[in-house]
Structure formats: structure tokens, C-alpha cells
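Why this split exists: single-chain examples teach little about how molecules sit against one another. For that reason, every record in the complexes split bundles all components of an assembly together and asks for one structure covering all of them. Below is a record exactly as it appears in the raw files.
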Amino acid sequence: MKRPTALVITGPGTNRDPDVAFALETAGADPTIRLASELAADPTPLDDAALVVVAGGFSYGDALGAGRLLALDLSVALGDPLRAAVDRGVPMIGICNGFQVLTRAGLLPGSLGHNSSGGFICDWVRLDPVAGSRSVWTSGSDAEIHCPIAHGEGRYVHPDPSGLHANGQVALRYSSPNPNGSVDDIAGVCDETGLVLGLMPHPENHVLTRQHPVLDGEAARPHLGLAIFEAGVRHAVTA
Amino acid sequence: MPPSLRLTITAVARDPRTQALQAAGDQLGITVPDELGIADVIHLRASLDAESRARLTDLLVDPLLQNGTWDAPSDHGIEVTPLPGVTDAEAAAVLVAARTLGIDVDAAVTGRRITFSADTTQEVARRFVERVVANPVVETWTFGTADPPLSPPADLRHPAERITVTTLSDKELAALSAERGLALDPEELAVIRDHFTAEGREPTDVELETLAQTWSEHCAHKTFRAVIDTEAGEREPLLRQLRDCTEEIDAPFVRSAFVGNAGVVEYVTGTTIALKAETHNHPSAIEPFGGANTGVGGVIRDVLGIAHRPIAVTDILCFGPRDLALDAIPEGALHPLRISEGVVDGVADYGNKIGLPTVAGAVLYDPAYTTNPLVFAGCIGTAEGWTSHDGPHPGDRVIVLGGRTGRDGIRGATFSSATMDATTGEVAGASVQIGDPITEKLLIDALVGAEELFTAITDCGAGGLSSAVGEMAEGVGADVDLDRVPLKYAGLEPWEIWLSEAQERMVIAVAPERVEAMRSRCDRFGVEFSDIGEFTGTGRLVVRCAGETVVDLDTEFLHDGRPQRRLPADLPRPVRTEAARQVDDPAAVLLDLLAHPNLRSRADIIHRYDHEIRGTTVVRPITGVERDAPADGVVLAEPRDQHGIAIGIGVNPWHGLADPERMGWSVVDEAIRNVVAVGADPDRISLLDNFSFGDPRRRSTMGDLVASVDGCVAASRAFAAPFVSGKDSLNNEYTASDGSRHAVPPTLVITAVAHVPDVARTITPRLRAAGDTLVLLGMTRAEFAGSHLDMVRPHAGDLGCVPAPDAAAPQRYRSLHEAILAGEVVACHDLSEGGLALAAAEMCIAGRLGARLDNVGHDDVTVGLFSESMGRLLVEVAPQHVDSFLERFGDDATVIGAVTDDGLLRLAGESIPVEQLVTAHTGDPR
């Protein structure tokens, strides 16, 4: 079977692009990494992509608020091809800074503010896939996902979280203690189509069982973050 | 000129950042009411119509989180803005965003507004801002609303000045050196005078500053290169002793030692590892965030400067006590709490943003670090198929990459080579700066993978371009034009451009035919590229500015003209006889040790560092089922590799105070023990040395330094673990206003970087299974000088000795490694501060399991529990492997107890619930 092409979009200061590329490759995709500025000059890779990822990091150093400047770049130069990709049925995921970017660019609901602790936190969390969510990235598995967080602005806010839940757009909740003050323990949300997922934690850093800090060997396997990328690839291949 | 405008942005709900500020104020005893508020302020010079304002508001203000107003606020507040010339990345971003939106903005400055409840007195508000929020070294603040200058400084460039030296007396030369902050010795000044007399001219200010930077302690390591006079006769320079030791060991994996920016080793054929650790002590004392921030940035550039991709960062931090009374702090110095918080934030900011895991480290507290904190930052990097660059060649272009040059970091090398006093913050303000990790991230992106395009590379660190271009031009010569150096703003004098230590810059040499390829690669990644001149082949360093030659120096004189120092040393005469201790309450002592600032859990700091990025961290700095117990070393492994890299740290200044020579050995042993304990191969270990001592012109300090080098060199030989790079930071002293001098204790940090053959066989201190046997490896003696037992239970009378070197340790570690590879080791922890009792307690905390110590490895229970004898480890072994494990060690191993499931640590007739151990270890830091 041909590996679906996965486009990883980066900006100046994106830094988890190699990590997510490794996760995509392990999940069976064929990832390429492109700067938003390169795509602005030539959007072909975006038109050809079967999966789209906005990777984590500190685009523009979080200046003026996490994700805002890269979101501006995407909206100004790539707004149309990005929406066209969603219309085409392409699964899209924004992780951490990518989540911040996609909310700012209007592709996902809500917003992300400073952690309630006021500072950056790196720790491992557990995530529950929400039953009844529309997200194609979390479908087919209800196992708890274990992976790290690493962010300073990850407090999810939304004016109507229960409406969001009722509409099947809450995809992931923290099942370990809420690390950042997110409303309703929300860790990840999707758009109305279920194709676009944004989440603060980093499933791309739990692709191998040996990356788990506590569980040994096979005990970690049911909790791999890899499951999210496998679901995305599965959707891209079968849809 | 367009008008100045301001956009004030506040959070719709309580801004979480205020809690951190308030907590910091509380800790310093400056309590402000809960109504404390914080707003971000963007000052603009622009003519904006209503639509442009609305579009900017839309970008800068998130309606779900924030409110924005273009009206000036009138509530009770203080506004903080950066001083002109200080990096303001947010302001730069505003300009980028405005350009993207097609809105004309001439200039921008960003700041913060701190608001107080109406009943907060001006005095309290002022103290709060001064002590908690702003730092006068880089920021200014004002009551009401700030009005920062929004126009670039006028171009008032002065030509280079000629400085008369040839006719000056020795005394007048010394006065000149003091006036210009040159920090040169009398002998060096005389050599400079003679050189220019022979040339028949006076030097320019640029030449004099270039010599001062190049010959500074920081750049030239004159103390480590000095001939040493001792009572017992002359001694070889310290650097020579370290190099000779590495040459004698002749390890097959060393590719490059003590040359260039970092050491290079090759454990796996084809993959090299570059390693380096640096200090950034003085800058961190006066501007903790910026000092630590740029310290991390600098050491990452060292690794990049030897053409390796940086993969991890380490930090070792030494601070004064966090609970010191505010009025106990000398004038002009910052409180240790402020320093420690700022430094940790500075390390976190740089490492997190550049995208490198900050993994190994240590944090030490001692009153002697109050005015002289120490910040050691390390970096390791890897490369495939690395060969050393052989340029620059005559004809190659001199290319500056990265950040622009400003008036920041002027004279950092000479500043860090002098001692500090109350006026240092004021005078040396220009020496520190805030880093810009994203610019450096882009440098990594552009340079890694482009190694074929350049012939030489170095970073711009201390001394700026003078040092980077000067070093590259050694022997070959260069001709550069300062008018081609891109500046942050106009108005810099030639020597300022040449000496500026503005961050995030690299210099490369590029053959003319590759210039375009390199330029387009830099364009792609958004890295500024400037061709400033040529490597000439004449052997002279020529610098031009505005059509005038401002430097014309023989590179041989610049690099080899400095007279060798001679330094007298009085070697220490430490006590070498054992002396025991007596404690009647070992359980209470153990709980005090677990809660001691030096030994308590570091989880709160480590959670502020991204230690997961790259997905390579296999053994983390915090470990155990609840991830709150310390690991001995950390292990990194690329996702597809079966092998990995272990990093371990050894440091113990309290041993150094009592016996610098034994300290030298003990910290090497500790660093090695730490990596072996996690699964590294004891025969593939490389070492970095970082010495932070006081003023070496004091004979006793020089003697301490000589003794510590003796100790660490002897240990390096014994373990056959070569030093490959190092750095010394001397003059870590503070002169108080009453004239008293405060030096740091002898602080030698050893970093061990080792090969881990199989990451599936890594070990942590986490106890796994009740019923397993606990085995103590090594011999325990009554060695308590400098011990942590003495810190929690001060001892009167004969202190006895610091732990002695253990000649059996190298073989013990090899046997342990074989046992690990054979799968016989379940858990392992090294014994260091706090001795056996602390190690056992930490293993219980890691595994949330109990343990029973039936004996403690010594007839005297206090010695067995709390002595810090070297070379020892505590190992958990499953019942079926006990016999084969013990057989490997003979008399060197003692079965001392077992793992239990009763939730109790039982030792010396006492039982302590593991939960009580956890509370002591992880409780409130105060």
C-alpha cells in the first residue's frame, strides 16, 4: 500500500517537527516538513497532502501570544488552500503550538491562555478519548493515552464547553489532574467536520514503549500516543 | 513624525502571571494586596486610522482571553520598559506583524504595566517593582504611564581614537587599564607598549580593546597557562597537566581534545559527540534571567561552532540560601531567591524555545554563593561523518550570520575576568543582555547540513567579532569592514561594533564560489547573512571602518605575544585522619537530610524545563513511579538507536573547602559513578572540567586550584576517562562596601559523557520488588569533613577528613557494568551526599516500596549510615541472581538488607514510613 503523504507545516521557532515526522513515519505515512513561508511561495505540497500537521514549538518565540504570528502568516498566505484541504476531507492536526495556531486562524473553536500556574510545565499526563467525539484522530480506540505536555499557554477556554461537548467536538480530556486549568479538563478539540484536531499534549513523544517514564516494556503499548497518528493515517487511506 | 500610540492589553479574568509575582514578593517579605494586576503594553510610533487600529487589535487581543484599549489607563500603576538597546523581541514581532498586515509602523517598544489596589502606598509599589518585577540593569520603570523613546538614536559615529601608550610609565599604563576596564596585568601592558614602540606608532582604541579581550582571563586562560611557583618548586601550567593526562590515557575514541569550541569523541563508528560546558557567573549575578539565558545560548553555539547538531542542555546552579533576610544582602546585590528564580527561568526560556531537552544538572545552596552565584551550562551535540574543517583558506570570505550587532555585551570578557563589587551592576550593565533563542534556532536550522559549504566556523562569544574573527584569522590574516556589519541601531563606535557580544551570531569562512549557495540557504531559513571581508593570507588582522583602518595587528602578536604569567601558590595542608560522628536520632537526621535544600527533590525545577522534546530522553533527571526521585545520570538515545549517551555530574564544593585535592578526585569519581549506575560502559567515558574559584592572585586560592587539578588528573588517569574540554572561571569574588572580600568555595564541576551500549539495559534507583536483596558495593570509612551530616547536625571538634580515593573503584565499576549487561541489576543508586541512609531513602521514594537494612556496612552505625566515602553504590538484586552477582565482587560487596512491601524504611532499629520520606523530600522548599 502506498504511504499517504503527510505535510508538516512549520514556522520560525517550530521545534517538534522532527518528533512528529518520526511519529507519522512510524504510523505509516510519508512525512515532509515545509516552512509556511515556502508554502506561501509554492502551495503545491499542501494541495497534494493526504494529512496536514501544524507542529509544536515556539513559532516566533511566542511573541505577542503563542501562535498568533504564525496564524497570521497562515491566514494571509494559506487560508484558502488550508480550507480547501479540509473540504477535500484531509485530516489535519495541530499539536501544542500548532493547536494555538489553528485556534487563532479560526480553524478550531476556543482559545488558549496562560497556564493557571502562571508558568511553563513539562510533565506526563493521561488522556481519555471522549466517547462520541467526531474526531477522526481519536476514533477506533478508547484506551487512555499517556504522553508529555510542555507548554506555558495551554489553558483551554471556550464560552460554551457543554455545547461543544454536545456537538461531539471535545476529543480528549485530561484523566490525570488538570495541569493547566483548561475548562472541563479539555485537552483536545476538533472542528465540526471532525477532520481537524487540536491538542496541547505531545503524542508524538510517546511513539516507542521505551519513551514511557514509568511503565516497562509492553505495559506501555496500549497507551502509546502513536494511536492518534495511526487513526489519522487510517482515515487518510480509507476515506 | 507620526504620533506615539499605546495599546494596553489586560486579561479578562485574573492573569495567572500575577500569582507568580505575588508569591515572589511574599517570599521577599513585600506583600501586596490581591488586586495586583499585570497588563502588556505596546508602544507604537505610527499614524493609524480606525480601521488599522481595529485590525491590529484583532491580531494582538484575543477576545476570549483579553481586553485591549488604545486609551491611556489612569489606575494606580507602574510601567516597565526595556532600556534603549536591550533586545525587545516582542517589539520586533509587532513590526513583522504590521508589515504582514500592510500597516505602516515606524517603531515599537513593548512593556508591562503593574497595577496596584488604590490603598497600596507608593513606597510598597516601588519596592515591589524594584525588587520583584523590574531589573534596573536592563529596564526602566515609571509611575503612571511610560513614554519610551520611539525613535532610533542619531548616528553620531566617532572615528577610532589613537591612544598614547608608548610614552607612558608603568603607573600611567596601569591607570589607563583601570580607566578603560582593560583588566590587563602590568607585564602585559609593558609588552603592548614595547610592541607599539617597535611599530613606531600608537594603537587605536579598537586595537587596545582587541588585545584586552584576546588576552583576558576569560579568553586566554592565563591562570591555567601560568607557570606555578610552589614551596616544593616549579609546577607545569594546569592546562598542560590536563592535556598531558589526556594524551597519556590515549583513549581510542577521542577525536579532538582541548582545541576549538568543544571536545569531540566517537564511541560508535561514524557518529561523533561534541561536548562543552561553560560558566556565565558574573552576568547571572546582575541580571539572572539574561545571564543564564545567554549562558545557555553561548554553550549551544560552542557545539554548533564545531559543526555538530546540539541535542541536549545541562545546567549546574549554585545560589545563596533562599531564606536569607532581605537586609542581609549587601548593597548592589540581588536576593538569592530573585537570582535563583531568574536563572531557572532563563535556562528554561532558552532551552525550551530552542527545542533542546534540558536534562542533567544540580542545584547547590551555600551562603558563599550569595553575591557570587555560579551558573554552569553545558551542551552536547552529535554529527554523522564529521571531519574537522581545515580552513579558513586565503581568499575565503568572512561571513557573519544571525543576530544583529548592538551595544549589548560590550567588554563581557574583561568584565567576567574581574572581581565584582557594589557598583558592578551599574557599571557593567551593558555587559549583559537578553537572548533570542529563536534566532539561534534558525542558525541551527541553516548550519546543520550545510557543512560542505564552509571551510571554518566559530561562534561569536566573549570578545564578539574581535575574538571570533581574530581567532579564525590566526596565522592567515583577515581584512574586514565594519560598515558591512548589520547593526540593531545606528550610532555605534567602531570599537563597540568590533567588541559587541550581541548574541546569536556565528562567523563562517566560505570559499567565493560557495557564497551564493550559502546565502540562499540562509535566506530560506530567515538567517541574516553578511559578507564583511576576506581571509587574506598576509597574517595581519586588518579592520576598516568608514574608510579608515582602525586595526592593523600582527596575528602572531595578538595570539602569542602575551607574556606567560607566573603565579605563586601555597598548597593546602588538609587533615587526612578519620574522625567519627555520633548521632542518636538517625531517623530524624535522615528526614532533615531529605528536606535539606541541597538534597530535596528537584521535580519543581525540572518540570519547568522541557526534558521530553526530541523523544530521546530514556532515563530522566527525575525518576520513580511518581517521578519525584533523583536519577544518578540521564540517558539519551535517538529513537532508532539501540545505544545511547549517558550524562553524569560531579560537584562538591564542601569537600573542596576541606581538601581541594580529594575533592578533585571525588567529583570525577561521582560523575563516573553516576553514568555507570545507569548503564554506561566504564571504558568509554569522557570528561569536562569547569573550575569556578576565587582570585588566583591570592596564593592560597592558587594553591587550592593546583591541588584540585592534582586530584582530578589523578582520578582521570585511574579511571582512564580523559578530559576533552574544559573552562575555568576565576575571580568569583565580591568586595563588599566595607572592603571585605567574599570568594566562592572551590567549585569544580565534572561532567561525564559516556557510551551506553544497550538502552534496554538502563537502570534507575527505583526499587521494584519486595523480597529482592540489597547489596552495598565498596568500603565505608569514617569520612565526614564537608559532609551533609555536618550541615544538619553541626559537629564541634575534630572534623576529620574528606573521603579518600578508592583505588578499587575502577574495577568495581567494570564488574557492575558486566552485571548490568547480564541482567542481574534491578535497581542501582550511587552513594554520595547523605551516604547510605539518603541513597536507601531515595530508592524507597522512587519505588514507593519499603526496605530493611539489617546492617549498614560498618560497625559504627553513624558511619555506616551517613559517611560519604567514595566509590560506593547500593544495588537491588533479584533472589535468583544474588549468588552470581556477589561472586563478581568478592569482599567488595556486602548484603545489607532487602526490599519490603510494608511501606517502611527500617534502619538502625528505627522505622520510617516511606510516605514520611516523600513528604520530607518533596515538601515546601522553605
